[in-house]
Amino acid sequence: GSALQSLGKHFRSFLDVDLWKTPERCLLSRAVRSTLLYNFTLIDGNGGNPIPNSALIINDEGFIVNIMDMNLISNNQIEQSYPNVKSFNLKGKFVIPGLIDAHTHASSECSFLLFFIRPQNATHMDILLSFALSGGITSMRDMGGDVPFLLPYASLGFLPKVPYPRIYYSCLIGGPDFMLDPRVQQAAHGTVPGTTGWLRSITNTTDIPAAIASAVDIGVTGVKIYADLDRNLTLAVTKEAKKQGLRVWTHSAIFPTKPSEEVTAGIEVLSHTAYFVFESYDSMPQDYKVRFNGDYANHPYNSQNITNLLQMIKQADAILDATVYVFTEPDSVTVQREYSTFRSSAPVPSHNSDTDFPKIGQQWIFNVTRDAHVLGIRISAGTDDLGSSELGDKFPNIHKEIELFVRECGFSPLEAITSVTKTASQAIGIDKYYGTIETGKVADLVILNNDPSIDITNTRKIYTVLKQGIFYPISNGTV
Predict the structure, then answer these.
(1) CATH code for the domain of 225
(2) Which spans of this chain does the record mark as coiled coil (predicted)?
(3) Looking at the 3D structure of the chain, how many domains does it have?
């Protein structure tokens, strides 16, 4: 309604660079109180080697205004240039960009995901988002399409002193059959599914420019094409969304549209390596519900069809949102979350979802993701399962995702860090100000006790997190 549109436009004002001080003006703001971090090893997210004995200055608006080599400057020089500086000696620490989970469903996560066994409410959402930030996540791309619930949290997340990650949310797009999905019905909040700016059914008779405009009005960052669109409608939605300034994200198989047809249409980010298997099918299934039943045994990961698909993605410079964790690591918490409604009345079904996947499919996913990486395709880190302290998770699952990249998919630790910072920011379209540690960018930082370039599990060894220059949590005593 009009209230949601008004709030959406208010949220979009946070994204309007004209309302921020530009980085160029921030670089001149040396008279205000600044923060100096020094004596740390810098891993900037661009993929280069760690840089020891580094220092950086953050101004009071949370922008990085200088990055320095401590071997070339003295404390006196810093004090003369920044007389009001507040200094923190990070000797022995490692600083990486804030982590970005490029595939989340926060609105359903706070209800135990998928089957909604408890009402959505502010307490659960506050716990979830605070847990994400304390685990190093400073931004996230939400792919669930539940804008009425997400919007207040997304608006709050853009305030530096609110302990939530920034949330970039989407308009969920599909055909009429997809709008019957119970998850869609839940996210409709009493409206007719498929008729709003956050849930849109597309057919040959849809006024697509008007449909996209309604999504823009409520502040979405991109459209997520989920299922039930043919290649002509996929192309039409993609063109119009880009024309109106939105990002275009999809499942890697839309049904009945093949992955290669999505790439040809100009899709910017394709989610789920697992669904690439359908590229090898002679006849593409029409029903998106078969997406968990890929025939991995009879469609090898290194078939010519898959090889050609990867080459197309590379040529188009599209991003693969691989989501390997949710398909290959069905730990007890995830299984509990996925099958919660079955526990009292029926046995857990077998091989019926992302989180209960046949072993041959798991290895297929690892192999194709590895081949995509070797080919030079940009791969962003996203979980499809954020994780929750209320479910016993000690850290957000994004750490498991990048650990799998290293352990199973041929990434070096530094490449995995790039996937969860720079490439993830590119997937959302926020890389101008986020995703790497560079002069003129926002100071979203994770300070680590141990070197993640040696052991990727050290991204869990968090000392503190900075979101736009604000420390979370506040350390006891001196940093």
Answers:
(1) 3.20.20.140
(2) none
(3) 2
